[in-house]
């Protein structure tokens, strides 16, 4: 999951989003269960859990105007074989089950998922040096 991390981070930064949190870890069964609690009992749940806990992954928090919507559009369709060229999944992915990126579906879900992986003191609020150039471009 981390093989293409530099390219993925580069794309979000190039869009003008601000990185507020970054962490590399092997996700425990407990954290994965919290993250995917709404999928418990579904047929794909065991394979989803096996994948997300199989090795290191990077958790990131990105901020910016309409960040959830922007990131979801940049990521592309969940089925990477149907994702548009130019999206992260369309350009870099081949297997839908072993997806390269995840994006929350709403600001409320984002807040819940961020709290699963990050303590408040692990998130950073700062001014971007080039912030004035990135607004409304």
Structure commentary:
The chain is of the alpha+beta class and 137 residues long. It has a single domain (5-25, 57-132), classed as Alpha-Beta Plaits, CATH 3.30.70. It has seven helices and two strands; from the N terminus they run αβααβαααα. It has helices at 5-15, 29-35, 45-52, 67-75, 88-92, 107-117, 131-134; strands spanning 18-25, 57-63. Strands 1-2 form a two-stranded antiparallel ribbon. The longest helix is centred in the N-terminal third of the chain and has 11 residues, at 5-15. It is globular. The model has no long low-confidence stretch (mean pLDDT 90).
Concise account of the structure shown:
By secondary structure, the chain is an alpha+beta fold. The protein is built from 7 helices and 2 strands.
Question: Descriptors for this entry?
Answer:
137 residues; alpha+beta; Alpha-Beta Plaits; two-stranded antiparallel sheet; 7 helices; 40% helix; globular
The helix/strand series, from N terminus to C terminus, equals: HEHHEHHHH
Q: What number of structural domains do the residues give?
A: 1
- The termini sit apart by 31 Å
Shape: globular
Give me the CATH superfamily: Nucleoside diphosphate kinase-like domain
Helix content: 40-55%
């Amino acid at each position: 999951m981390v093989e293409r991390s530099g390219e993925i981070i580069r794309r979000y930064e190039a869009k003008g989003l601000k990185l507020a949190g970054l962490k590399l870890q092997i996700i425990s069964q407990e954290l994965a269960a919290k993250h995917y609690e709404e999928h418990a009992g579904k047929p794909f749940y065991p394979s989803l859990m096996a994948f997300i806990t199989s090795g290191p992954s990077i958790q990131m928090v990105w901020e910016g105007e309409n960040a959830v919507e922007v990131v979801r559009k940049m990521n592309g369709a969940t089925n990477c074989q149907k994702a548009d060229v130019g999206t992260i999944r369309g350009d870099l992915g081949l297997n839908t089950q072993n997806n390269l990126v995840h994006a929350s579906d709403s600001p409320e879900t984002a807040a819940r998922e961020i709290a699963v992986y990050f303590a408040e003191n692990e998130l950073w609020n700062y001014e971007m040096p080039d912030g004035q150039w990135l607004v409304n471009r």
